[in-house]
UniProtKB/TrEMBL annotation:
Subcellular location: Mitochondrion inner membrane
Gene3D superfamilies referenced in this protein's UniProt entry, alphabetically: HAD superfamily/HAD-like
Stored PROSITE patterns: FCP1
Keywords in alphabetical order: Mitochondrion, Protein transport, Transit peptide, Translocation, Transport
Protein name per the record: Mitochondrial import inner membrane translocase subunit TIM50
One cellular-component annotation, GO: TIM23 mitochondrial import inner membrane translocase complex
One GO term of the biological process aspect: protein transport
Residues covered by the FCP1 homology domain: 55-200
Assembly: Component of the TIM23 complex.
Purpose: Essential component of the TIM23 complex, a complex that mediates the translocation of transit peptide-containing proteins across the mitochondrial inner membrane.
Family note: Belongs to the TIM50 family.
Bilayer disposition of the protein: Single-pass membrane protein
Length: 273
């Protein structure tokens, strides 16, 4: 059943914002037909986030996936990944902008968002939600998330994702997490991601926007991360290669058992596994 009830609005937004919500951006329900989906398709500009709202001047915009990244969701049963509360506590304490970007349907995304709110003990844990919509979604074989359409300073954008297919446009801005398919209390991925984010912020805050420090350059030097490479068939069966960074840590004992969006990495070029 499609969810219709709006999630709580962050206190920084005016009360009237519920009625004026940008379709598909703040609440996933807004992408449903009765919430302005047609009007949304009439918009001429290609950006997905309004620059004048949210936290455009935040030290870091963190784009997070939901399924198999933050949670395991089967039907109405949602199992959050361990340390999800610690991760979002850090994001909000440090003033980061949190954008949920999921290929899930609006109703599914809202169900998961409520489960994350409960697990993180934070009703207002995100600033924007982008769910499945023809504005960006091209089908199961083309779920690429183009960070340039977010209208944020690109060198201050970090994507946390489990699927290498989704990061093809900006792999250097991404940290891949292994698929969270089997709920376990022994997974430390989000705890380690929190440490990486903390180190990113320490440098980005000191250098300012005009300095050479960027998310890609800092990720490339972080010892908690390793290089990951993937090769898979894209639309029209064209071969795609993606090189990104992922956690050195793994819940798996064997590197060959690692899985990212159902894909196994071909190699890790440096820093060991």
């Amino acid at each position: 059943m499609e969810a219709r009830k709006a999630l709580p609005m962050p206190p920084s937004w005016p009360a009237a914002a519920t009625a004026l919500v940008e379709p598909g951006l703040t609440l996933a329900e807004a992408m449903l037909p009765s919430h302005g989906g047609v009007g949304y398709r009439r918009r001429k500009h290609k950006t997905l986030l309004p620059y004048h709202r949210g936290l455009p001047s935040a030290p870091l915009c963190i784009v997070v996936d939901l399924d198999e990244t933050l949670v395991q969701a089967r039907g109405e049963c949602v199992q959050p990944r361990p340390y999800i509360k610690e991760f979002f506590d850090l994001c909000h304490t440090e003033g980061c902008e949190v954008v949920v970007w999921s290929a899930g349907s609006p109703s599914h995304v809202n169900m998961v968002a409520r489960a994350v709110a409960k697990a993180s003990q934070r009703k207002e844990w995100f600033h924007y939600i982008i769910s499945r919509h023809d504005k960006w979604y091209r089908g199961e074989e083309d779920t690429v998330k183009d960070l340039s359409v977010l209208d944020r300073v690109i060198n201050r954008v970090l994507m946390v994702e489990n699927n290498p297919r989704s990061i093809q446009r900006y792999p250097q801005h991404s940290i891949l997490l292994e698929d969270y398919n089997q709920p376990t209390a022994q997974d430390n991925s989000l705890r380690i991601i929190s440490d990486v984010v903390r180190r990113l912020l320490a440098v980005l805050r000191d250098t300012g926007l005009t300095a050479n420090a960027t998310v890609p350059s800092l990720l490339a030097e972080d010892d908690a991360l390793i290089d990951l490479s993937f090769c898979f068939s894209g639309p029209s069966n064209r071969k795609k290669r993606v090189h990104s960074r992922g956690l050195r840590y793994s819940p798996q004992t064997d590197f060959a058992c690692r899985s990212y969006g159902g894909e196994h990495p071909l190699l890790h070029q440096r820093n060991g596994a």
